[in-house]
Amino acid sequence: MTRFLQCGYVVLTPYGGSQRYDLVIENAEGQFWRIQCKTGWIEHGAVYFDTANHNVTGKKRDWRHYQGECDYFAVYCADLGQVYLVPVDQVGKTRAHLRIEPSKNNQEKNVRWAKDYEL
């Protein structure tokens, strides 16, 4: 929330607990976006984060993605002290990553660079 406020957004929090988003932001033009907050971690030169939550019932594990239920992921990576704003419809349905280092094979095509999503 703090980073959104520093960037000049109005931040709203939903009442109750049944929404599939953690907060709503409003920009200067009056547009609203639903935000799901996620924690990112560093592995293999990238910031990884879950794009679904899992409900565990007994031995069954169901993944529920957020597509259509929120607009952006706000991914906080404590190791970098950075927040990334990632559109929900640009990532997969269970996990995603943002590159912070070049891949070992130097692939550039279809790479999501973390710097492009910094808030």
TrEMBL record:
GO MF term list: nucleic acid binding
- Which Pfam families would you find in this protein's record? PDDEXK_5 (PF11645)
Top-level taxon of the source organism: Bacteria
InterPro entries tied to this protein = PD(D/E)XK_Endonuc, tRNA_endonuc-like_dom_sf
Ranges for the PD(D/E)XK endonuclease domain?
Answer: 3-118
Entry protein name? PD(D/E)XK endonuclease domain-containing protein
